[in-house]
């Protein structure tokens, strides 16, 4: 077989791979691309097609390698540069992403063909928080081709980030006018309506999107929130359950579901959700509301064993829990420790003074009867709870005079807290998720969070380092890593 026949055969095999890719049979298609490349290692189309198939299989590392090979063979391969930019973005390498799109724009001589590239570039600029530059970029795309619906949709998203909600609504409406069945346009239109507190209209948008695609998780998640905003809690819970059937590892959604259960007074179900979403602080608050004070104390002690933000809030709530357990002496120590961290905390001052009066009056730890009648400590659980931050980040605060016997109260036999069956299940779910996508920086960060909670700081540190290797700009992982290092030094 001559050289011409070999090259012709390689091209034919590549075309068979394309047909399989169109059918979604990416694994089989890759086999054909590899056969073609064995015959002609410089067949740039085969490298490009293999890269696309690997991208569809979410094998981003190998996909990037194949795009690089295609570019090495043909440095002016515009589509390869664009897709390489997208892959780098998915891997969290935003700086390199923008470089790739700029290279594609430099190579593209035709103005109409630049519209896709400009729109994609604006999207990734937006993800890095460069909203003004992103808006300028997407406006260039619209100027070239005003009828490109995705550009209008992306512009609407950027205007949301810039809090220009009225202009955003106009952009989404324009996108919908150009493409009536664009689900993303409908969902984004609903999002902006909810931001404008037009919840009924927003709900209509999300329902319309779900009629077109019943499994659209973006529409589902927004519908859950909107129903909750409308105080339609039972419908909202049904929506959350549907969402979690599709995305069972979304801990933020599980947490939000817990908040609704808590509003409805269904504390056991709320506590289960907080367990599943690693929301230990909220679990402690909910256990107090359910009058399960011993378990609440156990939860706060576990939190205090590891570096954690808002330590003063944890101690404050622990103090209230100890009051409910009629242990006023230890409760006073908690309030005093709060004041050492935050001397201006008026609530802690008030409770410390009230507790001192009780102890002075009786010269011993009282049974708490009078205090509960006069001070109404239990009401403080519902009325004086500090609002925790939506997402906790690891900031070490030195706490003094926390009795060692209290810290070991949960598990006197071991230095590290026991790993509950539920926590083991959580780790199992995360590890399963990592098996499916080992390059997801966010999942490595979540694993580190769980490991910190059970006292495995060294393993947690490795997880945060992995997250940073995959996504160097991951601020939470960087902060968590630094706080663990600082904690270990002390």
Please, could you describe this protein's structure?
The protein has 490 residues and is an all-alpha fold. Among the domains are: 189-278, Serine Threonine Protein Phosphatase 5, Tetratricopeptide repeat, CATH 1.25.40; 292-407; 421-489, Tetratricopeptide repeat domain (Serine Threonine Protein Phosphatase 5, Tetratricopeptide repeat, Alpha Horseshoe). Helices cover 74% and strands 0% of the residues. The chain has helices spanning 3-22, 26-39, 44-56, 60-73, 78-90, 94-107, 114-127, 131-144, 149-161, 165-178, 183-195, 199-212, 217-229, 233-246, 251-263, 267-276, 280-289, 293-304, 311-324, 328-341, 346-362, 369-374, 377-383, 404-407, 421-436, 441-453, 457-470, 475-489. Helix 17 runs antiparallel to helix 18 and helix 19 runs antiparallel to helix 23.
Uncertain segments: 364-416
Q: How many beta-strand runs?
A: 0
Number of helices: 28
**Percentage of residues in strands:** under 5%
SSE order, one letter for each helix or strand:
HHHHHHHHHHHHHHHHHHHHHHHHHHHH
Largest sheet: none
The whole-angstrom Rg is: 28 Å
Q: Which structural category do the helix and sheet elements fall into?
A: mainly alpha
Specify the helix fraction band: over 70%
Please give the structural blueprint.
Blueprint (H helix, E strand, L loop, with lengths): L2 H20 L3 H14 L4 H13 L3 H14 L4 H13 L3 H14 L6 H14 L3 H14 L4 H13 L3 H14 L4 H13 L3 H14 L4 H13 L3 H14 L4 H13 L3 H10 L3 H10 L3 H12 L6 H14 L3 H14 L4 H17 L6 H6 L2 H7 L20 H4 L13 H16 L4 H13 L3 H14 L4 H15 L1
Helix pairs in contact: 1-2, 1-3, 2-3, 3-4, 4-5, 5-6, 6-7, 7-8, 7-9, 8-9, 9-10, 9-11, 10-11, 11-12, 11-13, 12-13, 13-14, 14-15, 15-16, 16-17, 17-18, 18-19, 19-20, 19-23, 20-21, 25-26, 26-27, 27-28
């Amino acid at each position: 077989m001559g050289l011409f026949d070999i090259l012709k055969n390689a091209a034919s095999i590549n075309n068979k791979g394309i047909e399989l890719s169109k059918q979604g049979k990416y694994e089989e298609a890759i086999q054909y691309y590899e056969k073609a490349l064995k015959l002609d290692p410089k067949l740039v189309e085969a490298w490009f097609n293999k890269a696309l198939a690997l991208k569809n299989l979410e094998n981003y590392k190998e996909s990037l390698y194949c795009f690089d090979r295609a570019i090495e063979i043909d440095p002016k391969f515009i589509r390869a540069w664009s897709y390489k930019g997208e892959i780098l973005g998915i891997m969290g390498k935003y700086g390199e992403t923008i470089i790739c799109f700029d290279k594609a724009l430099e190579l593209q001589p035709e103005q109409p063909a630049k519209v896709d590239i400009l729109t994609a570039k604006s999207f990734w600029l937006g993800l890095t928080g460069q909203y003004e530059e992103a808006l300028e970029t997407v406006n260039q795309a619209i100027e070239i081709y005003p009828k490109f619906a995705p550009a209008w949709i992306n512009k609407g998203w950027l205007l949301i980030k810039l809090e220009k909600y009225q202009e955003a609504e106009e952009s989404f409406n324009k996108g919908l006018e150009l493409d009536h069945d664009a689900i993303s346009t409908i969902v984004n239109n609903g999002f902006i309506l909810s931001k404008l507190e037009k919840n009924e209209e927003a709900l209509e948008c999300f329902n319309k999107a779900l009629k077109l695609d019943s499994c659209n998780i973006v529409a589902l998640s927004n519908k859950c929130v909107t129903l909750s905003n409308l105080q339609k809690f039972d419908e909202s819970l049904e929506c959350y359950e549907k969402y979690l059937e599709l995305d069972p590892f979304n801990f933020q959604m599980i947490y939000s579901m817990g908040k609704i259960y808590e509003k409805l007074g269904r504390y056991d179900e709320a506590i289960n959700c907080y367990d599943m979403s690693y929301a230990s602080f909220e679990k402690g608050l909910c256990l107090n509301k359910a009058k399960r004070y011993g378990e609440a104390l156990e939860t706060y002690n576990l939190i205090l064993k590891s570096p954690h933000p808002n330590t003063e809030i944890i101690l404050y709530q622990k103090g209230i829990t100890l009051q409910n357990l009629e242990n006023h002496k230890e409760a006073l120590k908690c309030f005093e420790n709060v004041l050492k961290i935050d001397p201006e905390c008026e609530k802690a001052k008030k409770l410390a003074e009230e507790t001192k009066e009780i102890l002075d009056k009786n010269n011993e730890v009282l049974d708490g009867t009078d205090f509960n009648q006069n001070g109404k400590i239990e009401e403080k659980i519902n009325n004086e709870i500090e609002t925790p931050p939506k997402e906790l980040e690891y900031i070490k605060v030195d706490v003094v005079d926390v009795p060692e016997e209290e810290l070991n109260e949960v598990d006197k036999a071991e230095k590290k807290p026991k790993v509950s069956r539920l926590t083991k299940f959580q780790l199992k779910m995360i590890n399963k998720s990592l098996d499916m996508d080992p390059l997801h920086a966010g999942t490595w960060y979540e694993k580190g969070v769980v490991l910190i909670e059970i006292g495995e700081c060294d393993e947690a540190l490795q997880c945060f380092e992995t997250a940073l290797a995959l996504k160097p700009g991951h601020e939470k992982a960087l902060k968590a890593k630094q706080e663990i290092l600082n904690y270990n030094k002390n």
